[in-house]
Amino acid sequence: MDQQVALVTGAQQGIGRGIASVMAARAYHVVVWDLDPEAVAETARELGGTGFAVDVADFRAVADAVAQVEELVGPVAVLVNNAGINRDRMLHRMSEDEWDQVVAVDMKGPFNVMRHVVPRMRERKSGRIINISSASWQGNVGQANYAAAKAGVIGLTKTAARELARFNITVNAICPGFIDTPMTRRMPPEAFQVMLDKIPMGRIGTPEDVGRVVAFLASSDAAYVTGDVINVGGGMVL
Ligand code: NAP
Q1: Considering its fold, how many domains does the chain have in total?
Q2: CA of residue 85 to ligand 1 center, whole Å
């Protein structure tokens, strides 16, 4: 296949979908990973890519899926770790399960996928990895689990960037601010407005606002950028 392969996790809706559509428009063959097999197949069909139903929190399932992608579709040139969940609650009421679920998907998920893609990128001496963290990594009321996991993603990104620079692999993180997706549409209207009021640019972000920054980090224009964290939030400070 002539096209470069971009693997995007959590890509059947929201930010992942926006990233996948920007990458498809820039001539990448997009590999769509998400949980629901039908939604994955539908999204892949619409974007002219290939879909796989994979739980990023499952180390073994990720190993098998990465092997299948490389065998059936082609070498992964760009990996975007986007799949994420939130289970917001004040720390003093947070259950062990709410903590474990968020850490398993949002922090262990990117590790699982990188752990299986990175050895292949090292062999090829090329690759781009973009991890989707969050503005919340610096702390946000009601998000102890999510902020801890998203801060962990930044540590993972910066460490991998140092380990992989000599293999011509860049690793960067993006911190979206407040983006219009099913995740944010689930918020109570008052909380939604509070977030909107924090954005100097006066509008919620779109998934494509994030997708275009991913495309920049994947492009040759960003060849000398690694271990960095880019905020995409219209100037928002939590
Ligand atoms: P979203 O609308 O909920 O989409 C996330 C997608 O990931 C969903 O399709 C979801 O599937 C999938 N997913 C969940 N768990 C998964 C797993 N274990 N394996 C594979 N796929 C899984 O969320 P979003 O707002 O687009 O967020 C995307 C990323 O951006 C997340 O990492 C999020 O933390 C981050 N982010 C979002 C915002 C924002 O304002 N929206 C801000 C900062 C950071 P199901 O629907 O079936 O669960």
Answers
A1: 1
A2: 5
Q: Which pLDDT belongs to residue 190?
A: 95
Please give the Cα distance from 209 to 216 (Å, whole number). 11
CA-to-CA separations, 129 to 114, 213, 228, in angstroms, rounded: 8, 13, 11
Phi and psi at residue 171, to the nearest 5°: -135, 120
Ligand 1 contacts CB of residue 211 (under 6 A):
no
Cβ–ligand 1 contact at 23 (below 6 Å):
no
The pLDDT of residue 2 is 87
Q: For residue 25, what is the domain's CATH number?
A: 3.40.50.720
Question: The pTM is what?
Answer: 0.99
Burial of 114 (0-12, 13-18, 19+ CB in 10 A): buried
Mean pLDDT of 18-42: 98
Which atom of ligand 1 is least distant from the CA of 182? 2
Q: What is the pLDDT of residues 161-196, one digit of tens each?
A: 999 999 999 999 999 999 999 999 999 999 999 999
From 12, 35, 62, 203, mutation site for ligand 1 pocket: most ligand atoms within 8 A of C-beta? 35
Tell whether ligand 1 has an atom less than 6 A from the beta carbon of residue 81.
Answer: no
CB of 9 closer than 6 A to ligand 1? yes
> Which pLDDT score is estimated for 115?
99
Ligand 1 mean position, distance from CA 11 (Å): 8
Known catalytic residues are 146
Range of the domain at 194: 5-232
Cβ neighbourhood burial of 162 (10 Å; 0-12, 13-18, 19+): exposed
